[in-house]
């Protein structure tokens, strides 16, 4: 494997970008096109941007919570596909979309995240049929839960507590502190 990897040195480049910004995505396209010289082509687009929105039960979530998750986890992926598609058509490349196992096994308190991840899976599955005539393939990788900074329990608890603090007194009374504490206890998976 090492010798095979040595043969590919210099042929893979990563680009950091903000998928919620059309300007950032366009800069990434320009960067990519600059590096595609001498017959080089873009063979794969890997959509791996994600925002793990764990805000508590749906009843605690605002439309802004859903909007934030959809902007990154769904619309950001679509924005990147639209921007790079012409390069993938040339190479007959592939679109790899990283989603979450929550599309099959939703987590309580992660409705906004699950909705956005399910939407991008549906988009990728529909897109697969539309791009096939152009030689592009679509692939979905569903990740489970791994201990990373992305889902450290301190930041998840902070988000949960932020949602709790935004609730009306009536909603806090409806759920009670014990319910909130149980939600925090369930976050110890990370």
From TrEMBL:
* Domain of life of the source: Eukaryota
InterPro entries, per database record? NAD(P)-bd_dom_sf, SDR_fam
Which GO terms of the molecular function aspect are on file?
oxidoreductase activity
One biological process term from GO is: steroid metabolic process
Give the UniProt family note. Belongs to the short-chain dehydrogenases/reductases (SDR) family.
Concerning PANTHER family, the annotation shows: 3BETA-HYDROXYSTEROID DEHYDROGENASE DHS-16 (PTHR43313:SF1), SHORT-CHAIN DEHYDROGENASE/REDUCTASE FAMILY 9C (PTHR43313)
* The protein, known as: Estradiol 17-beta-dehydrogenase 2
Source organism per UniProt: Anisakis simplex (Herring worm)
- Output the lineage of the source organism: Eukaryota, Metazoa, Ecdysozoa, Nematoda, Chromadorea
